[in-house]
Amino acid sequence: MYVCLCKGVTDKTIQRAVHDEGVSSMRELRQQYGVASQCGCCKSCAKEVLTDAVKERNKRFLDETLLPTDVCYT
After folding, report:
1. Which of 38, 51, 31 has the alpha carbon at shortest distance from 6?
2. For residue 22, what pLDDT is reported?
3. Which of 9, 21, 41, 68 is the right S-S partner for 4, CB 3.0 to 4.6 Å?
4. Contact criterion met (CB below 8 Å) for 46 and 14
5. 30-53 pLDDT, tens digit each
6. Bridging pattern class, strands 2-4 and 9-10
7. What are the DSSP E strand ranges found in 1-74?
8. At what angle do helices 26-33 and 43-63 cross, to 10 degrees?
9. For residue 20, how many other CB atoms are within 10 A of its CB?
10. Cα–chain-centroid distance for residue 48?
């Protein structure tokens, strides 16, 4: 769905920005994509999509452990 009609930014674009480019704030989103920089009607929706995507990214990162969690003392 379109989140920002003025700049043509969709929810998928925001999710990709979070997961692939590391975007994690409205400031970064505004700087890179212009979201909420014109009329501002999309600000609350964009923030909601951004927050959900950041939570998902953080959960995925925690689920993918970098070190083995099992220890063998034999």
Report:
1. 38
2. 94
3. 9
4. yes
5. 999 999 999 999 999 999 999 999
6. antiparallel
7. 2-4, 9-10
8. 110
9. 9
10. 10
